[in-house]
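User:
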Amino acid sequence: MAVKGIDVKAFLKGASDASKTYQENPAAPVEYATIRQSLYRLGKKLEIFVSYEPKLRFTAEWWKQLFGESEGKDGKGLFVTSAGFSTDLHSLGQMIQEGEKVFFETVVSVKEPLSHLRVPIDQKNLDGLNYLADQRFEWVNEKARIATRIAHVDGDVPNVHIELDKLDSYHYGELLYFFCVVVALSGASSGVNPFDQPGVEAYKVNMFALLGKPGFEKEKAEIEAKNK
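Assistant: Predicted structure:
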């Protein structure tokens, strides 16, 4: 995080403050965890992390590991994936809109971005987009989010909306801590231990054996016997 430019102290302060907040009033993480499990039991088997903010692209990768590794056990668990809108609306939007009704979306938006880019004007209006000239890109993205939410909800794709006040280190700490609390509540409510990863360990043992790591001779012999 430090190499990326995140203020680690501010990040930890955000997480610490979120911890105190949820100890006093856990309504927000409890609500999200309850919604996730309720939709799962109603047949929504796949949750999509969606953001229109490019800086959250790799947060989606962290989110997938957090929820997938914590909840995917004992034949249970939502399959979690991610999409970066509006780009992925062109590749996945059709499937989400009119495919099998197994999806719901968790959409994370940012109320106040750290920078403000505006749509430039084209003197010849060759692309026909001058009606957007001088508008902020976050304003355009917000209209895309609302339009997509309406379309997807009408298509039986429920949307959970999480709004981050600002995309700075402090609020980022709050956000990640929020997801950590949610996954603990959600996993426990589904009857699995959200704090272990036995499936991941299974493939690691096989890999160590195949690579010849000392101490895994027995497992290597068992694998070789199975594959004769």
